Amino acid sequence: MVTFKERVRGVVLSTALGDAMGAPVEKLSYEEIKKMYKRVESLRTKWYKEDYPADVNLGRKRGDGTVTDDTLMTIALINVYNKEKRHLDAYDMGNEYVKEIAFRKTYIPEFGREALIIDRLFYPEKYIFMRHVLANCEPREGGIGNMINCGAAMYIAPVGIVNAGNPKAAYDEAILFAMGHQSSYGLEAAGVLAACVAKAFEENVTVDDIVETALYFAKDGTKNAIRDLTEAAKKLRSEKAEMDTVIVTFQRVIEKYSPMKDDVHRKIEKVGIPSNHYTPSRLFSIEELPMALAFMVLNDGDYYSSILDGINSGRDTDSIGVMAGVILGAMYGDSVIRSEDVDLLQATNQMNLIEAADQFSATARLIIEQDLQLNDKRKNIL
């Protein structure tokens, strides 16, 4: 039997693993990754921008286990839970979470020094600061107007942990919290991923159970994208399809819900050109969560194969790796992760991830115990 503490470790370590595995090839297409690397299979992967001028790679470093904003924002959320020791909502996004990302320095591995997390964040995540601090918005309206992306989903796994075994509560809390950051299908993905993580804590859970949970809670384009991609994955698995066929099929399916395809870079030529990319929609979905679930189905839940296939598929590689990783990490616990990978992640990033996971495990256990006591009181009402 996998213990609760081991599952929490699995989630936290898998966040860093998927993030660091995918970071060196983020934004490359499948064909570019295949041409430059053949296949990424190790944390010790050279960043494709490593030899670029400093004005291009912005003086950052990646590779050899270096994590990015996915992990930094996940740890920031864990810190808020450890401080508050209760469930969170959008008001906590606009209060303690803003403090974590914009006012408290931490070690930023890509910079190789201490800095504010916000100095590293992409604009849709900086939006948290702009809306809650500069605009002093109603916290539950914080996500309105933001670029719709996977930014909330990539760090939402801790919400699944504090609601372990209760996917409905995880979905609801993720929506209530992340609405301070995202809206539309970006917000929906956060809710669904949190529900999947909560479900993965159940004993003897299967990948099919996880997909059913995702489909039960998902709405609109997110639901349809998950359904279509996981059904395609089942067919491809039965056919034992080659990777080229898998990627062509997956990208054809997801194009209906995320039509940007491989054109992920923001260039001056795009300015002023109208499109539906990153705008609110009931018909669209982020790519990362449906792709992560599809690769889990394709590989019948194998931990490393699911993460690595997702990373090698291209585009937002680190977040795909994170989303597959946190679900499978919750299912299997930390024993599924190679010890040399854990050692490298902790050394490179100057993070004691195991200690962070164990501290959060105690916090999550306390919150769950409080919920169970409340449920006992509710029984007396009937």
Automatic annotation (TrEMBL):
Annotated binding of Mg(2+), by residue: T68, D69, D70, D316, D318, S319
UniProt GO MF annotations: metal ion binding
Regions annotated as coiled coil: 219-246
Co-factor: note: Binds 2 magnesium ions per subunit.
Keywords assigned: Coiled coil, Magnesium, Metal-binding
Domain of life: Bacteria
Protein name: Crystallin
